[in-house]
Amino acid sequence: MIAIETLHVHERLVELIQLQVLYNRLYAVQQKKGDLPQQIEDLEVQLAARARSLAELQRRIKEYEKEIRTLHASNDSLRDHEQKLSKLLLQVRNEQEYYKVETDLKETRLVLEKNLKDMARFQHQVEALEQKRQEEEAKQEELRKFIAEKQELLDRIVKETASQEKDLQQRIAKLSKQIEKEDARLFQLFERRRRSLPEGRALVPIIAVEGRDERVACSGCYILVPRQLQWELSQRNRLFVCEGCGRFLVDAEFFEQVAADLE
After folding, report:
1. pLDDT, averaged across the chain
2. What is the CATH code for 36-175?
């Protein structure tokens, strides 16, 4: 285990324990939100993806509708041309001219027939896409309601815990400033540990090891603490860091005592 040198060790120990207890309380308050913020974020990502899908469906529907309108306009012109050719066919005076008009008339009718088939096919596509669009809109509406329910629950939790969270943050800021003023190096070491370790547990009490008489371990990584260090910690006059995880170690009874005395 690594010893940390500082002045007025007992006072620094008390302050670090107090700071860690306050952070533990803040973490517990913030955990009341659970993973709601992440759930909401994930759902909003899903909603955005569905919005893009809906936009693509609408774009394709508009394209097919445009094609239908174009073919419809083309057929109007082709029908006029068909009528003119039909009349002209009755007026031709020689076989060559008759053959030319008749061929033009057949081609016009073939184009008309093809356009009608294309229009029917495009209309079928529009109807299928429209069905998908309605289904997508219904799913989006359901998803929006689900997000709103989650957000309402989160807002209620935030409202219920806002005062407590603010108070803890203010106390943490005040105590942090005090410790940093007294020993900036020690405070920075604590902060580095807190930011890098799970749940921000930079300081932990030692705990008894089940089945191992009078042996204790770090409650952060559960590495066994040497008996000599166990005794040193009980004296409460030196600072030690766990060799396994880098957390500050303190006597369990001392930790509980300071935590209980902290309002």
Report:
1. 94
2. 1.10.287.1700
> Where do the structural domains in the chain lie, given as residue ranges?
2-26+184-261, 36-175
The answer, yes or no, to whether residue 3 has pLDDT greater than 70, is: no
Q: Are 79 and 112 contacting, i.e. CB atoms less than 8 angstroms apart?
A: yes
Please count the CA atoms within 13 angstroms of the CA of 252 that sit on its side-chain side.
12
What percent of the chain is predicted at pLDDT more than 70?
97
pLDDT above 90 covers a percentage of the chain that reads 86
Strand partners, 84: none
Long-range contacts: 17-21, Cβ < 8 Å, 24+?
17/203, 17/250, 17/254, 17/255, 17/258, 17/259, 18/175, 18/258, 18/262, 19/172, 19/175, 19/176, 19/179, 19/190, 19/203, 20/201, 20/202, 20/203, 20/204, 20/248, 21/258, 21/259, 21/262
Look up residue 256 and give its amino acid: E
Candidates 138, 141, 168, 123; CA nearest to 31 is 168
How many alpha carbons fall within 13 Å on the CB side of residue 185?
4
Instruction: Give me 154's structure tokens.
Output: 């989160």
- Return the closest-CA partner of residue 219 out of 188, 190, 250: 250
Please give the Cα distance from 242 to 3 (Å, whole number). 9
User: For 57-71, how does the pLDDT look when each residue is reduced to its tens digit (9 = 90+)?
Assistant: 999 999 999 999 999
pLDDT confidence tier of residue 237, bands split at 50, 70 and 90: confident
